[in-house]
Amino acid sequence: MIVEHRIYTTHPGQVHEYLALYEAEGLAIQKRILGRMVGYYRSEIGGLNQVIHLWAYADLAERDQRRAALLADEGFRHYVRKITPLLAGQESRILVPAPFFTPTWQD
């Protein structure tokens, strides 16, 4: 099991617009295609103007397959064209669990 940790940094003052657009147009598509949303947050202290997504996958192969399906989805591509101007940056990390951790949401 792996978790993808994505950080999107918006231009200053754009976090609320980003979240509203995501909720209206991106959320349902990503949940349908990516599957296991572990968490979705915005930063309050530390690096500001950031939105953090956490998505779980069985392995990198499942992630690759689901991400390819997401990027092929016309509705998602339309959403990306709208959201991109709000973004100043993006980071992605792949997290692996510690040997003693078993997530409660694991399939």
Strand order of the largest sheet: 2-3-1-4
Number of strands: 4
Instruction: Determine the CATH topology.
Output: Alpha-Beta Plaits
Give me the CATH architecture, please.
2-Layer Sandwich
Assign the structural class, choosing from mainly alpha, mainly beta, alpha/beta, alpha+beta, or little secondary structure: alpha+beta
Task: Give your account of this protein's structure.
Residues 4-100 form the NIPSNAP domain. Belongs to the NipSnap family. This protein has 107 residues and is α+β, with helices and mostly antiparallel strands. 40% of the residues lie in helices and 31% in strands. It has a four-stranded antiparallel sheet with strand order 2-3-1-4. Helix 1 packs across helix 2. It is globular and about 40 Å long.
List the helices and strands and how they pair.
Blueprint: E1 2-10, H1 15-34, E2 36-42, E3 50-57, H2 60-72, H3 74-83, E4 87-95
Antiparallel strand pairs: 1-3, 1-4, 2-3
Short descriptors:
Alpha-Beta Plaits, 4-stranded antiparallel sheet, 107 residues, 3 helices
Summarize the structure.
This protein is α+β, with helices and mostly antiparallel strands and 107 residues long. It has helices at residues 15-34, 60-72, 74-83, and strands at 2-10, 36-42, 50-57, 87-95.
